[in-house]
Task: inverse folding
């Protein structure tokens, strides 16, 4: 995948970071977004460069559509500085969690989740279409919670469900440009997501391990390499699919 460029939202931490590192090891230059932690962004830039690839970080809140035009302009300038007119891969990874019962979820909470996970993915992808090359690839990150209903995740699960339907439409409508679009749906992963709940709470970690066929909670290295592989030329014929990467969760 030499001389290819990936844009990864929420790339400075967790699954986005792991994906960036594994893509860099495969010869991909990385342009990623971060929302607040500049130190983590700078750390990732160093890791990508140590793998021999170019890296740049741009601050973006994917829940604020007013920031998108400025981001796209800066992304274009970065590509130009790298001697590129277009980029190859888009990984819509940025997001946050919400743990709230259906009866207790407020409109403000609902809007925040949907702004990031649905409107943000939809309109950022739309605005990046002129920059993504024909034959490029899009991966949207969903969740095992679209298939397995756990109390307290109704808004988050519904948002990710919308992303999954959206992705099939992207695959259909962008097919004329030979752009593929797929969903990767991780299971419960040991990161700082949801305040590190799966990683740091032994009881929850054991619960997850108990309903996962492979007998443990996932780790970032279970996900990043899979996304990198999905973006490879070997998987060029995979399109419009939801691929769950959960070790066999709740089978």
Result:
């Amino acid at each position: 995948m030499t001389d290819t460029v990936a844009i990864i939202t929420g790339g400075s931490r967790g699954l986005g970071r792991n994906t960036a590192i594994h893509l860099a090891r495969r010869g991909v230059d990385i342009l990623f977004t971060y929302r607040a932690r500049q130190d983590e962004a700078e750390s990732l830039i160093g890791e990508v460069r140590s793998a021999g690839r170019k890296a740049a970080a741009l601050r973006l809140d994917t829940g604020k559509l007013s920031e998108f035009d400025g981001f796209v302009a800066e992304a274009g300038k970065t590509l130009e500085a790298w001697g590129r007119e277009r980029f190859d891969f888009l990984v819509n990874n940025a997001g946050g969690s919400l743990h709230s019962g259906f009866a207790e979820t407020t409109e403000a909470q609902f809007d925040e989740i949907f702004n990031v996970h649905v409107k943000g993915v939809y309109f950022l992808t739309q605005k990046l279409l002129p920059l993504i090359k024909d034959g490029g690839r899009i991966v949207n990150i969903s969740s095992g919670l679209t298939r397995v209903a756990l109390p307290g995740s109704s808004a988050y699960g519904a948002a990710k469900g919308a992303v999954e339907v959206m992705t099939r439409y992207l695959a259909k409508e962008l097919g004329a440009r030979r752009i593929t679009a797929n969903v990767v749906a991780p299971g419960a992963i040991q990161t700082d997501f949801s305040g590190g709940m799966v990683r740091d709470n032994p009881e929850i970690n054991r619960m997850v391990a108990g309903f996962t066929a492979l007998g443990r909670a996932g780790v970032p290295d279970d996900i990043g390499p899979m996304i990198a592989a999905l973006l490879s030329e070997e998987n060029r014929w995979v399109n419009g699919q939801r691929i769950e990467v959960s070790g066999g969760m709740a089978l």
Q: What stands out?
A: The beta strands are 4-8, 28-34, 55-59, 87-92, 132-141, 180-186, 242-245.
